[in-house]
Amino acid sequence: MNRLIIAVTLSSALALGACKKEPPVVTPDAPQDTVTQPTPTPAPTSTAPQPGSQSHFSSAMAGADTIYFDTDRYNIDNEDMIALRRQAEYLLQYTGARATVEGHADERGTRDYNLALGERRANAAKNYLVSLGVPESRLRTVSYGEERPVATGSNEQAWARNRRAVTVMIER
C-alpha cells in the first residue's frame, strides 16, 4: 500500500508539473505599415450672417436701410431714392428675402395724425421699391407713428431722426 501511495503521489506530482504555465517564447510580429484614415472633421459652421437675415441686410446697407423725411412730408427725395435703390438691389439679389417697411413720426402732432403720417411714409417707400421691381408680395408696411423713437428729446435734431421709414427683414 505504501508503494501505491508513493506511486499515486508521484503521478500526481508529475501531472501537476505538466500543467505549469510558461510564458510563450513567440515574439510579436513586427508592426506593419498601416494607413490610418484621419478622423473627418466637421465642416466649420459659419458665424457670418445668413443672406436675407436682418443682420446681413443691415451690414450690406450700412445705414441705407433708413430714409428720412421733412416735417409733415412723405415724399421720396433724391437721397432717399439712392438708399431705396440699394435696398431694391438687395431684395432682388436675395429672392427669398421678405421685408417690412416701418413708418415713423416725431412726437409732434396727435397720435392718430402721427400713425397716419407713418403709414404714408412706409407706403411711399414700399411703392418706390415696387417701382424698382421688388414684388409687392414680398413687402409689407406698418406704422408706429411716434411710438418707437430712435432719438429722445424735444428738439429739431431728435425730431429729424424720428421722421423716418426703416426697412427690416422678416425672419423666416
Q: Which stretches are low in confidence, meaning pLDDT under 50 for 5 or more residues running?
A: none
**Could you estimate the helical fraction of the residues in percent?**
40-55%
Taken in chain order, the helices and strands follow as: HHEHEHEHE
Beta-strand proportion: 5-15%
- Terminal CA distance reads 101 Å
What's the CATH first level of the domain at 54-169? Alpha Beta
The main pleated sheet reads as: 4 strands, mixed
- Do you know the CATH topology of the domain at 54-169? 60s Ribosomal Protein L30, Chain: A
Put the structure in a nutshell:
The protein has 172 residues and is α+β, with helices and mostly antiparallel strands. Helices cover 40% and strands 13% of the residues.
Fill in the keyword field for this structure.
alpha+beta; 60s Ribosomal Protein L30, Chain: A; 40% helix
What can you tell me about this protein's structure?
- The chain has 172 residues and is α+β, with helices and mostly antiparallel strands.
- It has a domain at 54-169: 60s Ribosomal Protein L30, Chain: A.
- The protein is 40% helix and 13% strand.
- The chain contains five helices and four strands; from the N terminus they run ααβαβαβαβ.
- It has a four-stranded mixed β-sheet.
- Helix 3 packs across helix 4 (111-131).
List the helices and strands and how they pair.
Blueprint: H1 2-18, H2 54-61, E1 66-68, H3 78-93, E2 99-104, H4 111-131, E3 139-145, H5 156-162, E4 164-169
Parallel strand pairs: 2-3
Antiparallel strand pairs: 1-4, 2-4
Helix pairs in contact: 3-4
